[in-house]
């Protein structure tokens, strides 16, 4: 059994049509092998068309997009930034790049994402100290939509901009609108494990009323903050964050199959849901299908804390069978580097999800047989 072909959590999946190679070939044919060119410009345009964002800047990563969002919001030394605790460290690292101070916010049991209640508590706590945070970073983990309208309302009340980390949720729709378009800034990632990949890359979505200027400023900062003069002239520090024209070509091709990928990811989720329906210890991640469409980037389950089967048992059992599975993100306030920062608790939801969650293989190249292979192995743990 162990020598069967490996099943991955989520691996790159190029289009059957070869769209990506078409765009790359154009770049080669015209010698636009540079961090600028038609693919970069068009990728930004096409992302705006697909998501409904007002403007976008193509960058080297999702992390650099969060960093520039914080730069555009003028986050500076000692400023406070509220950030969802249950997430990948990339959501929080850019706060540290600017020497600002994160305050971590616990999640909500219904969405696994930022708890509006804990967010309000955080605003009140800091208001008492006379401190207004510079930004709130909210994440749509695994493609599950956060309660973004409630969060937006609270942020509006406290006059604080939102950076929406949609790195995992491209294609997820909340009440008719794509995630990444609710915050002043949204960010996407095209890393190798994401729902579509450009081998590595990211996008800053700009949704502000002055989106043209802000997107232009993001492009300026991403190209070393070089002033428009005949000679090299720099009034501020810049970054080498601009996406390459080759990478953008891959991204453009991948964007054409986004809907197909979402469909397949959801098929995988519903396969697991059906397969585990008689195992009362297993709870599927909440996808709130009434008013949202989850892209189901990773199908994730919670195992009842009193179950004889633990998340690690599932991971090891699958590993024995050459199948990849993983723990859920470990909350930031539990990380040695970040534990010194303030944390607003909502009953330990993030820790509960980390302790009891498992991310199951959600690779879009999986066949029906692969899905059955995975779910049957997991089911044997409850025999
Ligand atoms: C992947 C990811 C990022 C970072 O994106 P990169 O392109 O890898 O820099 C940020 N936030 C979350 C939640 C992610 O999953």
From TrEMBL:
Active site per the UniProt annotation: 194 (proton acceptor)
N6-(pyridoxal phosphate)lysine PTM positions: 194
PANTHER family linked to this entry: DTDP-4-AMINO-4,6-DIDEOXYGALACTOSE TRANSAMINASE (PTHR30244:SF34), TRANSAMINASE (PTHR30244)
Domain of life (superkingdom): Bacteria
A biological process from GO: polysaccharide biosynthetic process
Alphabetized Gene3D superfamilies for the sequence: Aspartate Aminotransferase, domain 1, Type I PLP-dependent aspartate aminotransferase-like (Major domain)
Protein family: Belongs to the DegT/DnrJ/EryC1 family.
Annotated Pfam families: DegT_DnrJ_EryC1 (PF01041)
Cofactor(s), by name: pyridoxal 5'-phosphate
Name this polypeptide is given: DegT/DnrJ/EryC1/StrS aminotransferase family protein
GO molecular function, one term: transaminase activity
Keyword set, alphabetical order: Aminotransferase, Pyridoxal phosphate, Transferase
InterPro entries for the chain: DegT/StrS_aminotransferase, PyrdxlP-dep_Trfase, PyrdxlP-dep_Trfase_major, PyrdxlP-dep_Trfase_small
């Amino acid at each position: 059994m162990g020598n069967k072909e490996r099943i991955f959590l989520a691996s790159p999946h190029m289009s059957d049509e070869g769209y990506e190679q078409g765009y790359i070939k154009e770049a080669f044919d015209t010698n636009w092998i540079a961090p600028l060119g038609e693919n970069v410009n068009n990728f930004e345009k096409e992302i705006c068309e697909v998501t409904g964002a007002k403007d976008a800047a193509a960058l080297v990563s999702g992390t650099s997009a969060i960093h520039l969002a914080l730069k555009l919001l003028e986050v500076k030394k000692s400023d406070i930034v509220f950030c969802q605790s249950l997430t990948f460290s990339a959501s929080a690292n850019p706060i540290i790049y600017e020497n600002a101070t994160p305050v971590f916010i616990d999640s909500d049991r219904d969405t696994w994402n930022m708890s509006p209640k804990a967010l309000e508590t955080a605003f009140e706590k800091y208001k008492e100290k006379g401190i207004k945070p510079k930004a709130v970073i909210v994440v749509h983990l695994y493609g599950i939509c956060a309660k973004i309208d409630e969060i937006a309302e609270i942020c509006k009340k406290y006059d604080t901009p939102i950076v929406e980390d949609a790195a995992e949720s491209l294609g997820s729709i909340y009440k008719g609108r794509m995630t990444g378009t609710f915050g002043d800034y949204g960010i996407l990632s095209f890393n190798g494990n994401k729902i579509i990949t450009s081998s590595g890359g990211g996008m800053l979505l700009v949704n502000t009323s002055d989106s043209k200027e802000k997107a232009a400023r993001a492009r300026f900062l991403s190209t070393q903050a070089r002033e428009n003069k005949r000679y090299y002239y720099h009034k501020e520090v810049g970054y080498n964050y601009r996406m390459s024209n080759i990478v953008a070509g891959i991204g453009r091709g991948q964007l054409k199959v986004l809907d197909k990928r979402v469909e397949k990811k959801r098929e995988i989720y519903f396969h697991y849901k059906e397969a585990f329906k008689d195992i009362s210890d297993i709870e599927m991640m909440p996808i709130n299908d009434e008013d949202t469409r989850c892209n189901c980037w990773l199908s994730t389950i919670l195992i009842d804390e009193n179950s004889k089967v633990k998340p690690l048992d599932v991971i090891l059992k699958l590993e024995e069978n050459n199948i990849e599975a993983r723990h859920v993100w470990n909350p930031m306030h539990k990380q040695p580097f970040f534990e010194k920062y303030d944390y607003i608790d909502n009953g330990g939801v993030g820790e509960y999800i980390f302790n009891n969650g498992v991310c199951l293989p959600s690779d879009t190249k999986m066949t029906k047989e692969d899905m059955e292979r995975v779910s049957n192995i997991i089911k044997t743990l409850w025999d």
